[in-house]
Amino acid sequence: MSSTAVRAGMAWPAADSEVPRDSRYLHGPVLDFLLLGGSSFLALPILLLLPVDKYMGIVAVAALALANVINHPHFAHSYQIFYGGFADKLFGTSLNTQMRMRYAIAGIVVPLLLVAFFAVGLLSGNVRLVTWGGNIMALFVGWHYVKQGYGMLMVDSVLKRRFFSDLEKRILLINAYAVWATAWLYVNSAGVTTDLWDLKYYAIPVPAWSFYSAVIAVAASSIAAAFMLWRKHKGGGRLPLTGLMAYFVTLYLWSLFAWINPLWLLVIPVLHSLQYLAVVYRFQLNVERAKPATTASGFRATFGSLRVRMTLFATIGFVLGALLFWAIPLWLDAETISTDALFGPSLFLFVCWVTVNVHHYFMDSVMWRRDNPKVKQHLFC
């Protein structure tokens, strides 16, 4: 596909003709900065200045409202992309055996394990076991965040042709994992109890030495990463600045120091989802543009236009997100009110939210791998 295949902005083209764009960006320099994490520099100072007690309710309602149009569709789009042409991904010849196995594990085995896990807990009436789902979700949230931040840096480096060596990437990845471990251990060492839809899940007791060891690892790996970047810059290597900003924001502002302010904690998922959607819509635009041009006329031509196809993709994501996070679990909760005394009235809201979150992380670990030919074909063209 030509490098002029996608418009520079998030707005969809009015026609299927190619529109010149700067191939160094997903959607253009300004939008890339804002979507990949730069908007954090605008939101965080404002939230830090607001009195928490006065604005907690307002920010929580706003964050929940935005979840319906940003967070939940970002989960749904991963299903649309992952399961699109799923039979071919499992049995076709476009992927190698190892990649097909990854799709099978993430697409079939993982959801079955999640269903089995909750089924055992529900049928046995084991509330403690069911709430362990929250701990599992919390564990994978950190993993998913730092890997996405690292992934954004790698995407930007490829687009700008400012590559990292294997050693440099290893340093950046070690730093990302150290931040993940430290953030997770901090929450558990602090004994935080979290309530998700009336079901409480508890921190896992961890020894103090493990947390302090992780802090040392973060400090050491952060210094190593900073030194590596400084040497690369001094040596004449140009750095992908937008990607580095995304990496920094994701690791430090959204993960390591997420608890700096309760209002900030509410807003982070929205910013994370925007970062994800920037890649999703670049990818899907290229997928749609790669399809053969229609020779139909009239209504068929209009329905088959790029604008309509992308609108349909976005609409399906919105509807699917509403089904997964609201309609299906609320219906199940209404049909199983006999479980209220044991699990509370929002059991399936808890189950569905945890299941979709955890499954999302496993799907992403397959879809956006650098050795996935689908990514090479449609993300970087």
Task: Walk me through this protein's architecture.
With 381 residues, the protein is mostly helical. The protein has one domain. The chain contains 15 helices and two strands. It has helices at 29-38, 40-49, 52-83, 86-91, 97-123, 127-159, 166-189, 208-234, 241-256, 262-290, 299-303, 306-335, 340-343, 347-367, 373-378, and strands spanning 193-196, 199-202. The chain has a two-stranded antiparallel sheet with strand order 1-2. A hairpin with a 2-residue loop joins β1 and β2 (199-202). α1 (29-38) crosses α10, α7 packs antiparallel against α8 (208-234) and α12 packs antiparallel against α14 (347-367). The longest helix has 33 residues, at 127-159. The radius of gyration is 22 Å and the shape is globular. It starts with 28 loop residues before the first helix and ends with a helix. Residues 1-20 have low confidence and may be disordered.
Range of strand content: under 5%
Number of domains: 1
How many helical stretches? 15
User: What portion of residues is helical?
Assistant: over 70%
Could you give the distance between the termini? 6 Å
Q: Which term fits the overall shape?
A: globular
Strand order of the largest sheet: 1-2
Query: Could you tell me the radius of gyration in angstroms?
Result: 22 Å
Largest beta-sheet details = 2 strands, antiparallel
Instruction: Give the strand tally.
Output: 2
Order of helices and strands: HHHHHHHEEHHHHHHHH
